[in-house]
Amino acid sequence: MDYYHESIILGAGISGLTCGLYLQQRLHDFLILEKEGRTGGRILSTREQDLLLENGPNAVLIKQRSYVLKEVIAKLAISERLVYPFDDARGRFVCKRDNLIKLGPAIFFSDLLDWSARAKMLLGGLSKSSLEEKETVYDFFSRKFSSKMADNLVTPLVSGIYAGDPKSLLVRTAFPLLHRADKRCPSLLLGMLKEKSALKKSDTGNDYRVKNGICTFIGGIRDLTLALSEKLAGHLRLHAAAVKLRSIIKDKGFCRYPDARWMVHTADGDNYFCKNLIVTLPAEELSELIFNSFAGDGVGDRQFSDEFVDEYATSDSQKLFLKLFRRLQALHYPWLGVIHLVYAKKDISSRVRGFGFLNVHEQKDRAALGVLFPTYMFPGRCRGPEELFTAFVGGELYPEIASSSPEKIIMNVHQELATVLKINVARPEKVFFFSWPKSIPQFDKYHYAFKDWCVDHDSQLRNLNWNWCANYWGGVSISDCMENAKRVAMEILAS
Ligand SMILES: Cc1cc2nc3c(=O)[nH]c(=O)nc-3n(C[C@H](O)[C@H](O)[C@H](O)COP(=O)(O)OP(=O)(O)OC[C@H]3O[C@@H](n4cnc5c(N)ncnc54)[C@H](O)[C@@H]3O)c2cc1C
Asked: Domain with 143 in it: what CATH number?
């Protein structure tokens, strides 16, 4: 069957759903096509027996400027479902050689820092601003403080939160606020204060009375995507994988829908024509879709150069999208394993409470990148007399773990956790293992080259009514995805 909608959104993760919500508010004609039989994408909260497990994001950070997140929570009337951490769960830890060190003032005199870092901290991170646009996060902190600090604090943070390696992530794209602060002023502290005050001045504020802070929902993060999906029910098609795209050049050939600029062919044989295409797909899925749509029979394998494309392509759109395909292929998402371990309360001797810990990787011999303590953090994660721990393994620092057996990975994590938290049993009572073959896009030099290329070709892509709404475009956090999604919706409504 053939259908026409003014806009088609590819993908029903948080980006696609948020974009849909804003289009719906203004009665725009749109449809979301989703490959899976569920919405939410990376957001994957599941119930197992009496446990609430988060296989993707565990929490959202609501900041003063998280306008869209706050606005969406208010629009969906789900603020009463928000849950904030227990009062005694505010501590975060760094784990060095099985010892937990609480992040806070005590860090200053701990052996996580050397005298160079301490002296530079007292000076507010004073050093000459860098002219290097592609400075890595690791080099940035080594320059501003010391390499010991970069090893002991920054590497755990970046590997535990972004599954990344600070030696390859670029500070400019991974931590834009720090980059701007450094450009503003040789003192990082002063630069940050100036950046924050500039942001405050541009703060438009909003009236949504949603408390700031780290939080989740009663039923996990999935409450957010479920509420969005319910609201957008009439605009959603599940089990509708886009398998081919066709760009329709205006006035060239006949199309029964005069405004159509794109045709999306789905796996079940339907054709969706639209004026605006909104793309939220992860890079691998999108590059596959582009290859299937634009390569044609003459392109055998997926390794080709721009020069080949210039010679081979028979239309401007084929040339543009085959080159885009190459850049998308270079975006890197590391493998990430998520392990939920459950222990009886009585078997845990440690009295430590808090969010969890991030490992210091001195010899790169730790089993986990970091471990969260969901039952110490939020209510309702576990109903029985048990405690739940969620460990993250693999990422950029330990890619080889992906090929180990789940049993071996689980036992290594169990042993590490048992030592750190003094757990006196040979194995956990229950274990759940989830793996993300491609977890989080890395904002490294390849991502930088991809963005650069897209900026150079922005007008060509815009002329084709191609709209980016993916997490490798405007930031990976849920809040960033939602800000970006609203911006895209507003641009489309204004066009
Ligand atoms: C393990 C993990 C932990 C994280 N932790 C946090 C956290 O604590 N806090 C935080 O803020 N962020 C966190 N993130 C990041 C955040 O979850 C993601 O950046 C965000 O959810 C991405 O949403 P998205 O809609 O852009 O993409 P996705 O969620 O990837 O959605 C894309 C959608 O497109 C669909 N799709 C794919 N191919 C096709 C096709 N051909 N046709 C139609 N549909 C298709 C997919 O099925 C999917 O539903 C985490 C991510 C991971 C993986």
From this structure: 1.10.3110.10
Q: Residue 13: CB within 6 Å of ligand 1?
A: yes
Determine if ligand 1 sits within 6 Å of the CB of residue 10.
yes
Task: Quick: pLDDT tens for 226-281.
Answer: 999 999 999 999 999 999 999 987 656 667 888 999 999 999 999 999 999 999 99
233 plus 291 within the same structural domain: yes
Does residue 101 lie in a domain region? no
d(CA 284, CA 319): 19
The residue-averaged pLDDT of 86-105 equals: 92
| Ligand 1 atom at minimum distance from 481 CA | 26
Question: 235 and 172 in one domain?
Answer: no
Q: Cβ(60) to ligand 1 under 6 A?
A: yes
CB of 467 closer than 8 Å to CB of 262: no
Point out the domain boundary residue: 166, 201, 236: 201
Q: What is the mean pLDDT of residues 156-175?
A: 94
> pLDDT tens for residues 78-90?
999 999 999 988 8
Identify whether 373 is part of a domain: no
Secondary-structure percent of the chain, ordered helix, strand, coil, rounded to 5: 40, 20, 35
Is 363 a domain residue? Answer: no
Q: Are residues 304 and 185 in the same domain?
A: no
Q: Is the CB of 33 under 6 A from ligand 1?
A: yes
User: Could you tell which of 10, 61, 281 is best to mutate to test the pocket of ligand 1, judged by most ligand atoms within 8 Å of the CB?
Assistant: 281
Is ligand 1 within 6 A of the CB of residue 488? no
Give the Å distance between the CA of 223 and the centre of ligand 1. Answer: 15
Domain count, the chain: 2
Instruction: State whether 280 and 188 are in the same domain.
Output: no
For ligand 1, atom 49: residue with the closest CA: 41
Q: Using the predicted structure, report yes or no on whether residue 205 has a pLDDT greater than 70.
A: no
- Provide the 10 A C-beta neighbour count for residue 352: 16
Query: 413 phi and psi, to 5 degrees?
Result: -65, -45
Torsion angle of alpha carbons 164, 442, 43, 291, nearest 10°? Answer: -140
